[in-house]
């Protein structure tokens, strides 16, 4: 048991952060130095919209992953009553909200470079905003409800119901007419979302891995902090 705990602590404190940092450095380096220059049909440079896409898409995928974790762990909490699942839910939600916000920021930069406006009320951007607001509401709900058990159960129900915003955001450009490139399947390259060529696909894959590793690292540390706070609260309660 002691060896297992030492291995788990080494993975959490040393290996995972190093892997996350190295993969992020590699991903950023590939976007800056490895991707080829992209030109439009009229010969204009599409470098900004082309390169920001390789941040924007992996961040979006990671935000979907984060809220999927909230959905699954919320179900598991309601089924088992184990508070470790509730801690995972709120940790993933708080980290996921950061990624959802970055989706809006990078999406706005991409929109400015591509369409000339920072914000366009098109389906993907609009549903991404709705997704962000749903999980902000999830976090606000957790802070507004008193009582650990009541808070955990209400948040779990909200986390399950709110998950509908994830497939709605992902499928929005297929359900409604949109100028936004498809997350998968658009190989035109003209709008910054093209995935033709080994260098483009490899860069995208490395960036997805890097951001997922970053997400996992942040959630692990967040869960550790939450567990330490709960133990501190238990100690304080026993002393009162």
Q: Helix amount, in percent? A: over 70%
How do the helices and strands follow one another from N- to C-terminus? HHHHHHH
pLDDT < 50 stretches = 1-6, 40-45, 185-194
Structural Rg:
20 Å
Strand runs, count: 0
Which structural class should the secondary elements be placed in? Answer: mainly alpha
Range of strand content: under 5%
Oligomer: single chain
Number of helices: 7
Broad shape: globular
Overall average residue pLDDT: 82
Largest sheet, if any? none
**Spatial separation of the terminal alpha carbons:** 33 Å
Secondary-structure topology with pairs:
Layout: H1 2-34, H2 47-80, H3 83-115, H4 123-144, H5 148-162, H6 165-175, H7 198-239
Helix pairs in contact: 1-7, 2-3, 2-5, 2-7, 3-4, 3-7, 4-5, 4-6
Provide structural commentary.
It contains seven helices and no strands. The N terminus is likely disordered. The protein is mostly helical. α4 runs antiparallel to α5.
Concise description?
The protein has 240 residues and is mostly helical. It contains seven helices and no strands.
Keywords:
about 0% strand; about 240 residues; mainly alpha; single chain; 7 helices; globular
